[in-house]
Amino acid sequence: MSLKFNRERLLLVLSLLGLGVAAVSGAAEYVPWLASMCGSFSGGCKETAEFTLFTLPLWLWGAIYYIALAVLLYWAHFLVFWWVAVAFGVELSLLWIMVSLHALCIFCLVNCLIVILIVLFSFKRERLWQTIAVSLLAFILATYIIPRENQSLAMEPDRQSEKIVAMVKGRPITAAELVQPLASELYQLQMQIFAKKKERLDRIITERLLEEEAKRRGVTIQQLVRESVPPQQVSVTEEEVEQYYQANQDKWLDWKDSQAELKARIRAYLQSEEYKQKVVEFSRSLAEPQDVVVYLQEPAAPLAHLNVQGAFSLGPANAPVTVIEFSDYLCPACRKAHEVTGKVKELYKGRIQWVFKDLPLRMHKWAEKAAEAARCAGEQGKFWEYQDVLFASQEELNPNRLKQHAAELSLQTSQFDECLDSGKYKSAVETDVETARKAGINSTPTFVINGVPSSGALSLENFQDLIDAALKKAGDHNRKDRDWKREAKE
């Protein structure tokens, strides 16, 4: 009796511990330092946090499981065996999915350990085959349901990348080898197609809403639009005309007439576009938000799943926008860009995560060694300071000069020299280069903003446009996701 009581008490403690882990895992979505803690162990927390089962997040299912287990231990002990066996099968499925995605999450691993302990302390030898059967059935069902429900996440691209598109003397060529180097170009084409489809879809939605309202009022669509959106409401300022003119200089190279006539045409075009937008806004006001549901999806960013684990980074790991910089310390364009990136990091401090990856080009003799040196400085907590020195240096970055720069930053020279001379980080730099190659990135600098690559030394305004758009998109996505989950619960 005492052994049984102690076992039940231990199971209750494990249930409470598991409930705590589930609660912390759920809180990590809203508490930045918790997300950062998980992110410091692995990059998988971001991905696993988005998984659901029957529309509910997995951490919530974990909390429900542990609460139910505690209740069963007191009021329905005969059901504990079945409950534990089912949970073990589901947990094995989650572990399998996590490993398949290479998305290890510290909270998930701790939870898995707790479930295993619960199984061990509740196990009965005479029910071995029943345990195996129930757990296997739960494993099969969970492995089928969870990936299907979450197929928009990282699992689907991985499956696609494994497809064989050709064979050369018995050696396969996979879809990943074919597509990844072309990812950026293909994405631009996909976005053009998406823009055309969206423009056409918006026009159809507008026409149907206007048609319905015109029929209700007993007027034509033209009358409805003229009465509701008078053309005189539209005005375009001289400043707007000038901004459009300056932003599209390359379009006017073949213009033969006067500049005044050109700007008059620009004004007419902007007025037309503004009027169209007001008509669209009016048409949307004729329906409730839930009456217009759009299922057309924007193409997924091509490089959204670049591995950033182990890379030097600034900003919160759970930031809505991640900027991955591929750069070369001896590249003139990279040095020019570095003057701007410092301002960008400061401007968006706390709102973005900035990740640096090395892409030393073969044409630059000491670029790879400089990349290794920056990592050696990172051992002593001065990666970013040393990086500033490298980008600003006007001298040849040979090993002796690299060591001098370390001394100027008051680094422990013996530790730095040993690190640099041993080639300690040579393989790490090569790994970054291989990552870039597989992603189709072959020029520096390249900035991957939430999976979308942009090459060249971007201006501050370019960065602001790209990051602001990514922040807005991330905000809209998170808001829609929260609304969807709330509606599902209701």
Descriptive overview:
The chain has 490 residues and is an alpha+beta fold. The protein has three domains: 156 residues, de novo design (two linked rop proteins), CATH 1.20.1440.130; 114 residues, no CATH class; 167 residues, 3-Layer(aba) Sandwich (Glutaredoxin). The protein is built from 20 helices and nine strands. The strands form three sheets. Strands 5-7-6-8-9 form a five-stranded mixed sheet. A two-stranded antiparallel sheet has the order 1-2. The C terminus is likely disordered.
Which features would summarize this protein structure in a list?
5-stranded mixed beta sheet, alpha+beta, de novo design (two linked rop proteins), two-stranded antiparallel ribbon, 490 residues, disordered C terminus, single chain, Glutaredoxin
CA radius of gyration: 29 Å
Number of domains: 3
Mean pLDDT: 84
Characterize the largest beta sheet: strand count, sense, and whether it forms a barrel: 5 strands, mixed
CATH architecture of the largest domain: 3-Layer(aba) Sandwich
Order of strands across the biggest sheet?
A: 5-7-6-8-9
Named CATH topology of the largest domain: Glutaredoxin
Structural class: alpha+beta
Q: Give helix and strand order, one letter per element, not per position.
A: HHHEEHHHHHEEHHHHHEEHEHHHHHEEH
- Going by CATH, what is the homologous superfamily of the largest domain? Glutaredoxin
- Can you give the helix content as a percent range? 55-70%
Which regions have little confidence, pLDDT < 50, spanning 5+ residues? 154-159, 479-490
CATH class label of the largest domain: Alpha Beta
Shape call: flat
- How many extended strands? 9
Q: State the end-to-end distance.
A: 45 Å
How many separate helices? 20
DSSP strand (E) fraction? 5-15%
